[in-house]
Amino acid sequence: MRPDFYRRARTFGLKIPNILNLVESGASADAVESIYPSTTYPAHATLVTGVPPRVHGICSHLASLDPTEAARPWHWLAQAIHVPALWSTARVKRLRTAAISWPVSVGAPIDYNIPEIWDPAAPDPHQDYQTVARHSTPELFEELSRALKPVFAHAKPDRLRGEAALYLWEKYRPALLMVHFVGYDQQAHRHGPVSREALAAVEQADAEIGCLCEAATGADPVTMVVLSDHGFVAVDKEVAPLVVFVEEGLFDSNAEGKPELRRLGAVHAGGSFAVYWLEEPTADERRSLARALKRLGATGAVAEVVDRARLKSLGADPDAELMLEAAPGYCFSNRLNGPVVRDSVKDRGTHGHLPMRAGLEASFIVAGPGVAAGKNLGRIRLTQVAPTLARELGVSPDMLASETEPVDLA
Question: What is the 3 state secondary structure string of the chain?
Answer without folding.
Answer: CCCHHHHCHHHHCCCCHHHHHHHHHCEECCEEECCCCCCHHHHHHHHHHCCCHHHHCCCCCECCCCCCCCCCCECCEHHHCCCCCHHHHHHHCCCCEEEECCCCCECCCCCEEECCCCCCCCCCHHHCHHHHHHHCCCCHHHHHHHHCHHHHCCCCHHHHHHHHHHHHHHHHCCCEEEECCCHHHHHHHHHCCCCHHHHHHHHHHHHHHHHHHHHHCCCCCCCEEEECCCCCEEEEEEECHHHHHHHCCCCEECCCCCEECCCEEEEECCCEEEEEECCCCCHHHHHHHHHHHHHHHHCCCEEEEECHHHHHHCCCCCCCCEEEEECCEEEECCCCCCCCEEECCCCCEECCCCCCCCCCCECEEEECCCCCCCEECCEEEHHHHHHHHHHHHCCCHHHCCCCCCCCCCC
